[in-house]
């Protein structure tokens, strides 16, 4: 989809569909919606009077123009109540409208600059939200579908039509950033939606290399032999049951060569989590092809940083392995030795994410990366605690907590802080090793974080557990079924904010 910015009058713009908007409770539309209404002889106003258009959030009403204006259709998008309005509404309405336009066989769409009118938001931010929402909402993963139920063609062009020429530069800047952020989320989705047979660790690394090349990042992939030399016994242990060898993906972005500080982003890259010898139940196991979505979000956020080029240094680390049961797999009771020499008693082979993250954290600390932010589909406990509406995180640093909360808010990816309860480390005490990989069942997400904390030691750190939000089971706004791409855009926003500190 090509997104263009044009000066002009939306009522005169030719397109398969044009998008205007309406706040809930408004009975006579103003601004661009009013202008389109007049061109249609008051048709929109009548639909409002009849109660067919209410302006409710997520409502999209399609009106045929029957030749009265150059565009074939008008989509009237509900903005909801004025007091709840924000950029998130803009992103979501664009997602819904693009799918609706596509369903009506439109291949060209034009829109007004939602949010910059009576709502008075900054034109650049509105343009970014429009681009981000359009790119994400139009996403489809159709690689393996032949008999497609939805045969509609992709939207080819989206024009943002703005009458005030003074706003155009800001709008173009916003579009550029929104496209990068939206595409970054879609890269995460492409990786996470890919079935595990098509994306073993080596292929995952190849995809990382390709994205790194596209964004001018340095990419290094450590193979199994190198992992042995480094002593990454936890990552090797998780991977040893699979016919697909583990690897370790490193992406480097240097936007501030004069500084010796480098932020470390770490993502869980389990290309499939069967549970291993502590095998998972069959029902729903297919979702575990997405157990590398934390790693995918790191790779895609790094890609976005390469495109945006902020003045900051960031290294992305993705330990990648497939967790499988076999004659060579690790067993409950086995003891693994992490890169820093600490020993881990494996109680449950399904608590594998924390194992591979332990080695990645050791590597990050050896490289003096700080702060560290790890993202992982780590615990079912977090999914149960928060559900799909927010992503949980823990951190040792109040400043980071605030920055993560803000970055998530700006992305429309709500982030909710959980406490790191030090006492829960007691449940991780092992009789035979320095630590064991599972603790008490209650507060399982916090126990998992405390396990990571044991390896992080005193490095400033945040841990994002996205187990409940990596996947969507329904279409809504920017979300489509399958991978959400969370928390890719939050990570990019976070790094941009840290760069300004
Ligand atoms: N990848 C899973 C966590 C998960 C569950 C992600 C549901 C997304 C949706 C993780 O490796 C896991 O299996 N965790 C176990 C840990 C337990 C054995 C301590 C869990 O949460 O059950
Ligand atoms: Mn597991
Ligand atoms: Zn897992």
Please provide a brief summary of the model.
The chain is of the alpha/beta class and 501 residues long.
Give an overview in words.
The chain is of the alpha/beta class and 501 residues long. It has 2 domains: 2-161, Leucine Aminopeptidase, subunit E, domain 1; 182-499, Aminopeptidase, CATH 3.40.630.10. It is 36% helix and 20% strand. The chain is built from 14 helices and 20 strands. The protein has helices at residues 31-39, 43-49, 87-103, 123-137, 168-193, 201-215, 224-230, 233-239, 293-308, 353-366, 380-386, 398-411, 444-456, 488-499; strands spanning 2-7, 17-23, 60-64, 73-80, 108-111, 157-162, 218-222, 247-254, 263-267, 269-273, 313-323, 335-337, 343-345, 372-376, 391-395, 415-417, 435-436, 461-465, 471-472, 482-483. α12 links the parallel β15 (391-395) and β16 (415-417). The longest helix has 26 residues, at 168-193. It is elongated. Zinc ion (ZN) is lined by residues 270, 273, 291, 352-353.
Task: Write down the Rg.
Answer: 24 Å
Distance between the termini: 35 Å
* Tally of domains: 2
What integer is the average pLDDT?
98
In DSSP terms (H or I, runs of 4 or more residues), the helix count works out at 14
CATH topology of the largest domain: Aminopeptidase
CATH architecture descriptor name of the largest domain: 3-Layer(aba) Sandwich
The major pleated sheet works out as:
9 strands, mixed
């Amino acid at each position: 989809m090509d997104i263009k910015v044009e000066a002009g009058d939306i009522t005169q713009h030719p397109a398969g569909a044009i998008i205007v908007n309406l706040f809930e409770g408004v009975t006579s539309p103003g601004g661009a919606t009013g202008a389109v209404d007049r061109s249609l002889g008051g048709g929109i106003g009548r639909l409002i009077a009849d109660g067919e258009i209410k302006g409710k959030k997520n409502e999209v009403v399609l009106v045929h123009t029957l030749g009265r204006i150059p565009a074939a259709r008008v989509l009237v998008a509900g903005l909801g109540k004025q007091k709840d309005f924000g950029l998130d509404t803009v992103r979501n309405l664009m997602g819904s409208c693009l799918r609706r336009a596509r369903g009506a066989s439109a291949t060209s769409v034009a829109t007004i600059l939602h949010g910059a009118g009576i709502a008075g938001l900054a034109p650049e931010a509105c343009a970014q939200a429009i681009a981000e929402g359009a790119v994400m909402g139009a996403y489809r993963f159709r690689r393996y579908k032949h008999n497609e139920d939805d045969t509609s063609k992709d939207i080819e062009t989206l024009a943002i039509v703005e009458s005030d020429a003074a706003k155009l530069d800001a709008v173009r800047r916003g579009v550029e950033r929104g496209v990068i952020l939206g595409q970054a989320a879609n890269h995460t989705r492409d990786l996470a939606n890919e079935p595990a047979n098509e994306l073993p660790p080596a292929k995952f690394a190849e995809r990382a290399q390709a994205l790194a090349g596209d964004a001018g990042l340095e990419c290094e992939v450590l193979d199994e032999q190198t992992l042995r030399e480094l002593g990454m016994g936890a990552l090797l242990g998780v991977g040893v049951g699979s016919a697909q060898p583990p690897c370790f993906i490193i992406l480097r972005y240097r936007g501030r060569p004069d500084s010796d500080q480098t932020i470390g982003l770490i993502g869980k890259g389990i290309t499939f989590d069967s549970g291993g010898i502590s095998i998972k139940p069959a029902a729903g196991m297919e979702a575990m092809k997405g157990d590398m979505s934390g790693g995918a979000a790191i790779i895609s956020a790094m890609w976005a940083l390469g495109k945006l080029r902020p003045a900051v240094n960031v290294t992305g680390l993705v330990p990648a392995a497939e967790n499988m049961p076999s004659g060579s797999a690790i067993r409950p009771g086995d003891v693994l030795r992490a890169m820093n020499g600490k020993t881990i008693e494996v109680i449950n082979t399904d608590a594998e994410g924390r194992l591979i993250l332990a080695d990645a954290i050791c590597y990050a600390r050896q490289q003096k990366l700080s702060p560290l932010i790890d993202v992982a589909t780590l615990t079912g406990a977090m999914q149960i605690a928060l559900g799909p509406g927010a992503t949980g995180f823990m951190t040792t640093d109040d400043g980071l907590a605030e920055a993560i909360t803000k970055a998530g808010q700006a992305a429309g990816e709500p982030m909710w802080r959980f406490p790191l309860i030090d006492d829960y480390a007691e449940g991780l005490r092992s009789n035979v090793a320095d630590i064991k990989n599972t603790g008490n069942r209650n507060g399982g997400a916090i126990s998992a974080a405390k396990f990571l904390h044991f390896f992080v030691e005193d490095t400033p750190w945040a841990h994002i557990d996205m187990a409940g939000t990596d996947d969507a089971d329904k279409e809504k706004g920017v979300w489509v079924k399958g991978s959400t791409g969370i928390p890719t855009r939050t990570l990019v926003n976070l790094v941009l904010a840290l760069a300004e500190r």
